[in-house]
Structure formats: structure tokens, C-alpha cells
Amino acid sequence: MSFSDLFSNGFTKRNQDHFAAIVHIAMEDGVITEDEKEFLDRLAQHLAISKETYAGILKDYKSHPINPPVSLERRIERLYDISQMVCADQIKDENKVHLMTKIAIGLGFETNRVLEVVEKALKLVSDTVDFEAFRKEINILFE
User: Fold this and answer.
1) Whole-angstrom Cα distance, residue 50 to residue 117?
2) Do residues 134 and 76 lie in contact, with contact meaning Cβ atoms separated by under 8 Å?
3) In degrees rounded to 5, what are phi and psi of residue 49?
4) How many helices (DSSP H) and strands (DSSP E) are in the chain?
5) What is the pLDDT of residues 102-131, one digit of tens each?
6) Which residues, 6 or more positions from 39, have their beta carbon under 8 angstroms from its beta carbon?
7) Residue 128 DSSP code
8) How many Cβ atoms from other residues are within 10 Å of residue 85's Cβ?
């Protein structure tokens, strides 16, 4: 196995684990809503999750570990990507906040600050800021 194979396999595994964690979060209330399903479909495409892997994760999502990013920087990167996808999916505002709140908690943001983080993230993405501006503004919340 070449070095590039190791990297791509690790990258694929991280994407699958990240996707499974979001499925786990979506299933927290026992149901995947239509908005959540549409979001998961889009996320699977973005993370290059095959249809077979997608089906397997939906069937057995609990077998994948939930490993939120350790650093705030990595959480912010994931939050940025997911916020962009949620906004692009035309999900109704109240459903956006609900979905993003669940995901942000799963990413490791503190529950007592999560609504503030989600509202700021969705506002920034709807204002089409780039990642650096997004990162700076989210970091301000934690100073």
C-alpha cells in the first residue's frame, strides 16, 4: 500500500465517521425529518460517501464512534462547511436552527453557548462571508 493510499483511506474513514456522527445526532429524537434527510443526502455527496456506505451507516450508525473535533479551530471549520450546506439546502429558518443546534452540540460546542454560535454562523454564511471572516467572528464569541 502506498503512502497516498494510506492518506486517502484515512480521509475517507474520517469523512464516514463524521457523517455517521451527524446521522447519530439526527437520530437523537428517533426520527430523521425530511429536511434532515435532504441535508444528509447533500452531506453524503459532499463527503464522497457512496450509496452503499450511506445505507450501511443509516442502518448501523451506532457502530461508528462520535469523535468531535478536539480543537476550536477544527470545530469552526466543520461548522463553516455544515452551515454552508444547511443554508444552501433551503431549509426553513426554524428547522435550520434546530438542525444546526443539534449538529453544533455534536461538534462539541458548549450547550450553554450553542444557540449564540448557531445564530452567528447562519447569519455569517447567509451574508456570504469567506472562511477567514467566519473564523474570526466565531472566535470572537469565545474571547
Assistant:
1) 31
2) yes
3) -90, 120
4) 7, 0
5) 888 888 888 899 999 999 999 999 899 999
6) 85, 86, 89, 91, 99
7) T
8) 16
Contact 46, 16 (CB under 8 A): no
114 touches 104 (CB < 8 A): yes
CB 123 within 8 A of CB 100: no
Instruction: For residue 48, give the DSSP letter.
Output: T
Q: Which of these, 91, 30, 134, lies nearest to 100 by C-alpha position?
A: 91
Whole-angstrom distance, CA of residue 21 vs CA of residue 38: 16
Phi, psi values for residue 89, rounded to 5°: -80, 0
Q: What is the pTM of this model?
A: 0.71
Give the pLDDT confidence of 52-104 residue by residue, as tens digits. 988 888 888 777 767 777 889 988 988 988 888 777 766 666 777 888 888 88
